[in-house]
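Reagents: none. Just compute today. Membrane peptidoglycan carboxypeptidase.
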Amino acid sequence: MHRGERRARRPNVVWSVFVFLLASAVAGALAAGLALPFAGLVGVTTAKAHDSVQYLPQDLETAPLAQKSIIQDSQGHTIATLYQQNRTPVTLKQISPIMLKAIVAIEDDRFYEHGALDFKGTLRALLRNQSSGGVQQGGSSITQQYVKQTLINKARTPEEVKQATAETYERKIAELRYAIAVEKQMSKGAILNGYLNLAFFGDRSYGVEAAAMHYFGVHAAKLNLPQAAMLAGIVKNPTGYDPIDNPQRAKARRDVVLRRMQELNVITAKQAQDAIKTPVIDPAKVRVIPSGCANSKYPFYCEYVVSKLKANSAFGKTPEERENYIETAGLLIKTSLDQRIQAAAQTSIDQHSKSGDQAVAAITMVEPGTGLVKAMAQSRPYGAKKGQTAYNYNVEKSYAGGFGGFQNGSTMKAFTIAAAIAKGVPTTYRINSPQTINLSGKEFSTCSGTTSDDSYNPSNSTKTIADPSMVDAARASTNTYFLQLSEQIGLCPIATIASNLGMYDAQQLKPLQQVVSFTLGSAGQITPLMLSNAYATFAARGMYCNPQIVTSITSLKTGKAITTPGPNCHRVLSPGVADGVNYVLQQVMAKGGTGAKLKFGKSDLAGKTGTIQNNHAVWFSGYSSKLAAASVVADADPPTDDLIGQVFNGKKLSDASGSGTAGPIWETAMQLALHGLPTSKFVRPDDKIIRGNVKDLPYLKGMTPADAGAKLLSLGFQVRMDHGPRVDSDAPAGTVAWTNPRQEDGAPAGSTVVLFISNGSKAQPPTPPVTPPVIPPPTIKPPPNLPTCPPWDPKFPKCRGR
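Predicted 3D structure written out:
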């Protein structure tokens, strides 16, 4: 290097040293509260100073302020607040003028007179602190403090936070350089506003608005002199001057602020003295804003909401990123929770169970046609103590708190009914259904082939007539009927409909297994949310909606809506098929049905009981056209055991059933939830769905066989006399007692009607013959999955279809 070049660069180095010494003298002193001696600066090289100043960026990049998110119910009431920093940003006009004066007086009284650095004030503070041997007065300008808070707010990792707060000369020089740029780019008012929104005021309160609401229960715009002085004083040491934990120190610090304001003629001596006489805070007005779902009135519902938000990839690539976004982005999250219906659900749970029971109870309530999840309630409260739980028994195991469901027993028969009706099976279709049936080795077709059980001899848990119709079998929950029906129509149509209605294994998060006992509810674990929403589809006449728990998300900062998954309502069943299911399940709640004791009011109600093997869980799921609900009582503590003998509702169960144990929870909840709403009715299905393609039969009871035969022949039917013994009947001896098919079921045109003759005994008639004459028993088994004729259709008397 030539000597001339060296001389040319020398002034730059000298200037860098000068700038560094000046900045470092201030910044280094600030790093130790202006208590460091100047001798501490000699260890820093001029090269480092040159780099620190010359290569710093000039623009301070800001990050969005961390702002709390709010979860609301369907009516706009807050049910939970989520935050890392409790903050509500406000504009300068939304801050009391006395608050602005107080913070300037104590933190930087020459704020409006100097630039980024107050040389006069800093040197004065430095000399005062040096002479006193301690920290008596701060030296950082409000602009410098704003820069520091901005850099901390931008930090997203512990390492970044450490860098933003490191007590080094380099960081102080960087802050000063940023401060110079900020003063050029922003007005004094904007800087002060930004600082007051960033500053920490203790007790998880960030920003002046959150602090004002927390300590005094007022908005920042309404702060008075003593309140403003306390907040202005607390920012220096939020923990040490905490007015809740340290009221005396907080008052002393507040009074320092008041006296400083008096010295600067911001307030009069009288104003200062009057303010000094006031208490620092009124404990009764302190407002705590708890964070997180654990502090919510509805913790289980809240946690499920948060789990759904964390599953939304729009909020981040990972669950951690999404959680951070949710807690800092300032979101207004509106949910489907209806507090009136939620109260109905919880009241029912509390009435029919106890929190300390061995068995647990849960219920979910959904609105048909919208998928809106109106309520979730369960018997065990939220917590970690004995008798409490963090498990939500209503939902799938898609997050840590989801329990993952229970087997749901005969509530699965509804999907078999739907599949059968969709295939054209009339609700009057009869199958010989003995109390026990041997299905060992019987092959059932599936979506991928066939399945069987080598040793399977299922029985009915209730008594029924020997040849029940679909309605009869549903009313009595006849297992052997529905097993044979599922064998005839195949498991694939049933499983497909169940899947289309949102049913899957809530424990494994996989499709339900197509097993022989599918219709009896042993295909997987099901949740009350899942089942209530599926049954809501029947109530909505075949319109399925995804369960909707988050209805809208809005940015509190911008007021703009944020896209969130909607209910995606779409048709999965024809209205006629859904009407047929409603018709069948409505009979379950009629006289003689397993749900008859649960019927209330004038609205149409439909439902189905469910009990799994060995009574590990019992269910009732039902609905009106306005609301659907599924309730369950189960052993949730592995290894699960029979409910009989377990304590439930404060006493040992001697019996466990869907109608008697889970049913009352459903009944009370629905009765309370539907109270005051207009009466609603189901749409009656087409007669063809109810009875198939049949003609009406005349009323023949009490007619002579000749007259009855002539009547039938004139209507186009064939006639045959039963040649067995005359039957017990209250019809006159020798006259017609009943027919097969029965008069109420009708018969296909041209089919044969069998006449049974009364013996006149006036005894109750026994069960009629079990095999309809026009539908012979199956004789041929076609290969699986090949299109075949329907066995219930008399046009195919040799049919053995699936």
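The domain at 693-757 is CATH 3.30.10.20 (Trypsin Inhibitor V; Chain A).
Action item: order primers for follow-up constructs.
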